[in-house]
Specification:
This protein has 14 helices and 16 strands. By secondary structure, the protein is α/β, with parallel strands linked by helices. The protein folds into two domains: about 15-240 and about 415-425, 3-Layer(aba) Sandwich (Aldehyde Dehydrogenase, Chain A, domain 1); about 245-395, Aldehyde Dehydrogenase, Chain A, domain 2, CATH 3.40.309.10. Helix 1 (about 5-35) packs across helix 8 (about 200-210), helix 6 runs parallel beside helix 7 and helix 10 packs parallel to helix 11. The chain is globular.
Length: about 425
């Protein structure tokens, strides 16, 4: 094949992909118009039918996931990535239960957020409406396919899903169950669509050329994915930055609680964005708390990288490099350092954190309130594991991600966060003087 022929073939392929993506967009826009008017009952029927399809198809989904895991091992994916990717019967049942939980949530569409009457007699309401068409770009986790599809459905939005290549078989199998749910409820199958190719240019087309169809993009993944989306998008982006989460053990902390919460915050699941990556220990209790906390982490299988004070507390601690501060390990590794006091802990978190989730362990109510009020992270916690940074744990059924920006939504993105609003004004013939 000549160079001219290769160029022509590449151009022709690119044109086909562009047309394919625009067709997805047109179908999503048409579906969104229907879904925005769909009844609560029909949406709930779809969600429950999809949950049942997940259970009925469990063997097929798990087999598909095994293919993804085998391919992931061949690609030398990290242990954390493989953990994110892996499905088990228990995890799959949890996904189905999440869909059923979302069905039980109140329908946000049409909710009257506020109402007031003007002196001229006009009655004004602020009413929730769907965002429209949402594009979701994500990596690794097959559960996002179900969670995102279900949350968008319940909030009246059509969605275009673009999962990562490492989970393509699992995502395809789960998506088929969502489509079964839509069909059972008589809703358009195009309300939840997958980008049917792993060609990276499909993401570029979605970000650059589909503003006519896509109202907002939600990226969920690593730093490189987020950076690309924010750089290339021509539509609004709901930011989800890396989870640089901190647990600060204040001078008023109970040592047993400090140990238990720290280990859970780091080790329950190391590959999720709510996992603690840095633990700060107050100087005033370093002699009594630092050693037990570090020992608990190491005994649980965690590698601890610490400052000189932390290294002195346990000979198994490895020296921390400067790059370890503010690093998202997503692995059984944690950075630990001693800080002078609450003020220095706050300064440290503001410097190195990503505004995701940060926690304080203390019995001192005044210190806790300062931490909760003065730290501007999307989620701040008192005496609790950062692993609770999760829409399901917040009672939202599930989440699309944890938004770390300050516009439109912050924290877990559930059904309410996937709506906007309009104003409804009712009069009796008023004219403006």
């Amino acid at each position: 094949m000549t160079m001219a022929e290769r160029h022509l073939a590449k151009t022709s392929s690119g044109d086909r992909l562009h047309g394919q993506m625009l067709l997805l967009g047109r179908r999503a826009r048409q579906a969104a118009e229907l879904l925005g008017r769909a009844s609560t009952d029909s949406k709930n029927v779809a969600l429950r039918a999809a949950a049942q399809a997940l259970r009925t198809s469990a063997d097929d989904i798990l087999s598909a996931n095994e293919i993804d895991l085998a391919n992931g091992r061949k690609r030398d994916l990290s242990a954390a990535m493989l953990d994110r990717l892996a499905l088990t019967p228990e995890r799959l049942d949890g996904i189905a239960m999440s869909l059923e939980d979302i069905a039980e949530l109140a329908d946000p569409v049409g909710d009257v957020m506020a109402e007031w009457q003007r002196p001229n007699g006009l009655i004004i309401q602020r009413v929730r409406v769907p965002l429209g068409v949402i594009g979701i770009i994500y990596e690794s986790r097959p559960n996002v396919t179900a969670d995102a599809g279900a949350l968008c459905l319940k909030s009246g939005n059509a969605v275009i899903l673009r999962g990562g290549s490492e989970a393509v078989e699992s995502n395809t199998a789960i998506h088929a169950c969502l489509v079964q749910g839509l069909t059972a409820a008589g809703l358009p199958e195009t309300a939840i669509q997958r980008v049917p190719t792993q060609d990276r240019e499909a993401v570029g087309i979605l970000l650059r050329d589909m503003a006519e169809f896509v109202d907002i993009v939600v990226p969920r993944g690593g730093k490189n994915l987020i950076a690309r989306v924010q750089a290339d998008a021509r539509v609004p982006v709901m930011g989800h930055l890396e989870g640089l989460c901190h647990t600060y053990i204040h001078s008023g902390a109970d040592v047993d609680m400090a140990c238990e919460v720290s280990v859970n915050a780091k080790m329950r699941r190391t590959g999720i964005c709510g996992a603690t990556e840095t633990i700060l220990v107050d100087e005033a209790i370093a002699d009594t708390h630092l050693g037990p906390v570090v020992a608990s982490l190491i005994d649980a299988g965690c590698e601890v990288r610490g400052d000189t004070r932390t290294q002195a507390a346990d000979t198994r601690v490895k020296p921390a490099a400067e790059s370890d501060w503010g690093h998202e390990f997503l692995d059984s590794i944690v950075a630990v350092r001693v800080v002078d006091d609450l003020d220095q802990a706050l300064d440290y978190i503001r410097r190195y954190g990503s505004g995701h989730t940060d926690a304080i362990i203390t019995a001192d109510a005044v210190a806790a309130e300062r931490f909760l009020n003065e730290l501007d992270s999307a989620i701040v916690m008192h005496n609790a594991s950062t692993q609770y940074a999760d829409g399901g744990e917040f009672g939202m059924g599930a989440e699309i991600g944890i938004a770390t920006g300050r516009i439109h939504a912050r924290g877990p993105v559930g059904v309410e966060q996937l709506t906007s609003y309009k104003y409804v004004v009712r009069g009796t013939g008023q004219t403006r003087p």
